[in-house]
Amino acid sequence: MDIQELYTNSYRLVSQMTTDRKRYLYDQLPWETRMLCIRGARGVGKTTLLLQRIAEAFPTGSKQALYVSLDELWFNENRLIDLAEYHYTHGGTHLFLDEVHRYPQDSWAQEIKNIYDRYPGFHVVFTGSSVLKIDQSKADLSRRCLFFTMQGLSFREYLDFNGIARFEPTTLDQILGHHVNLAMAITSQVHVLQYFEEYLRHGYYPFYHELTQGYEMALRQMVVNVIEQDIPQAESVELNTINRIKRLLSLIAKTSPFTVNVSRIANTLECDRQTVHKLLRTMQRASLINMLFKGKSNMQQMVKPEKVYLENTNLMFALASDINIGNIRETFFSNQLFSAHELSFSGNGDFMIDNTYIIEVGGHRKSYEQIKDMPNSYLAADDIEIGNGNRIPLWLFGFLY
After folding, report:
1. Ramachandran sector of residue 47 (left: φ over 0; alpha: ψ -120 to 50; beta: rest)
2. What's the CATH code of the domain at 27?
3. Whether residue 362 sits in one domain with residue 222
C-alpha cells in the first residue's frame, strides 16, 4: 500500500462529511493545542468528530491535515513516525490519528511523544478506546497531551440529530433551580415523552440512524468486539480473562442494577476477589458498566461498589432478557450524570450528586416521602412533562450535555 493512498482515503472521507450537526464535545475541545486525545467507547462518533474538524478548519483538498486510521495495512510495514516525517516535510501541519490502540506495534505512545518533540508547531489529535490507559513509564504524554472522554448521545442531542428540535445544553444547577421554566420552554415545542421512550431503546449510539433494523444485534456484536478486540489491544489480558468478562457482563445484564457480592462472583468465575475488582474496573473503562460507590469514586481501590449498572439503557435492551422499568430509569440517570458529575450511592435516596444533592428516581406516582426531610433532595420522576417544587421530570436530566 502506497502512502498516497492514505491521503486519497483521507480526502474522500472528509469530502463526504457534513458539519451541520456536531457532537457536544466538538466545541469544548481546545483544537489549537498541539496534542489532543479523545477517548470513548465504540460507536459514539469519535471518527466523525475528527473528519468534521478537518472539513471545517481546512480548505477542501488541503495537504495540511491528514486523517488516518491506525488499523490501515500501511502500518504493517511502516511506522507512525515515518508517516509524521513524510507529512511534515510535505507541508503537513496537522495529523488526525484514529483508534491508536489498533496500531500493530505497542510503541504508539512513544512514537506520538517523539512526533511532538521532533516537529515544532506540528499538531496531533488522536482517538482511542475508552479502555485506553496512558502508561507514563513508557512515554510521558501527560505533560504534552490534553485528554477528553466522549459519551454517547444525550437525549438533547438525540432530538437534534433526528431533526425534531434543537436546544442548548443546560447545567445541573439550572435544572435543580429552574426545571419548571426549562421544561415548559422545551415541551412548548415538542412532546418529549414519546421521543424519550425511543431514545432509551435506540438513541445513545449515533450509528442507530444507519440501521433501519438489527440495531440490538449490532450492539451485541459491538460488545463482543469491545471484549475480544479493544480490551486485549489496550492492555494485556489472557483468554480466561476475556471469558470471565463475558460471564460477568451476562450476570450484570440479568439483574441490573447489580448488587455486588465479591465472594459469590469469585466462586462463580473461579477466580480470586482481586480479579473480580480488576474485571469490574476494566469493564467500566470499556464503557460497558457504571459502578456506584459510597462516597467519592473508589474505582482504583479494592472497595466493593454498592451497585453496578449497564453503561446505558440501549445496552439493557440489547443484552437483558427481562427489563425492569425502575432499572431503566436508574441506568439512564446514572449514565447522563456520570459524564460530568461525581455520582455516589445514597442510603436515603438512589443517588448522591457531587456529595451534595440526593436524588430519588421513580415513576410519576413515586412519593417524595422517603427523602422529604433530607436537605437538597429531589425526585426525578418519569412519565411527566413538567414537574413542580422538588419533583423534576427525569427526561430533563438528558439535557446536561
Report:
1. alpha
2. 3.40.50.300
3. yes
Q: Helix, strand, coil: what percent of the chain each, to 5? A: 45, 15, 40
Q: Which of 86, 117, 150 is the last residue of a domain?
A: 150
What's the rounded Cα separation, in Å, for the pair 124 and 195? 38
Domain count, the chain: 2
Q: Are strands 357-362 and 351-353 parallel, antiparallel or unpaired?
A: antiparallel
pLDDT at res. 138 = 58
CA distances from 212 to 218, 223, 287 (A): 11, 20, 25
Tell me, yes or no, whether 59 and 41 share the same domain. Answer: yes
Q: Do residues 246 and 237 make contact, with C-beta atoms less than 8 angstroms apart?
A: no
Angle at the Cα of 228 (from 269 to 320), degrees rounded to 5? 65
**CB contact at 8 A, 116 and 124:** yes
Question: Are 126 and 176 part of one and the same domain?
Answer: no
Give dist(CA 120, CA 138) in Å, integer: 22
Grid cell in block for residue 15: 469530502
Question: Rounded to whole angstroms, how far apart are CA atoms 115 and 88?
Answer: 10
The Cα–Cα gap between 352 and 149 comes to 22
Q: In whole angstroms, how large is the CA radius of gyration of the chain?
A: 22
- What is the Cα–Cα distance from 128 to 288, expressed in whole angstroms? 16
Q: CA 232, CA 242: separation in Å to the nearest integer?
A: 8
Give the cell for residue 321.
432478557
pLDDT along the chain (401 residues), means of 10: 95 96 97 96 96 97 96 95 98 97 89 95 95 67 92 97 96 98 98 97 92 90 94 84 95 86 95 94 95 73 87 95 91 95 92 96 88 92 96 98 97
Q: Which domain holds residue 387?
A: 157-399
Task: Using a cut of 0.70, tell me whether the model's pTM lies above it.
Answer: yes
pLDDT value of position 308: 96
Which of the listed residues 133, 150, 167 is the one where a domain comes to its end? 150
To the nearest 10°, the Cα dihedral for 344, 226, 315, 197?
100
Neighbours of 152 (CB within 10 A): 24
* Diameter over CA atoms, the chain: 69
d(CA 299, CA 294): 11
| 130 and 202 housed in the same domain | no
Distance CA 286, CA 283 (A): 5
User: Residue 221 is which amino acid?
Assistant: Q
Torsion angle of the four alpha carbons 331, 333, 338, 343, in this order, in degrees rounded to the nearest 10? -100
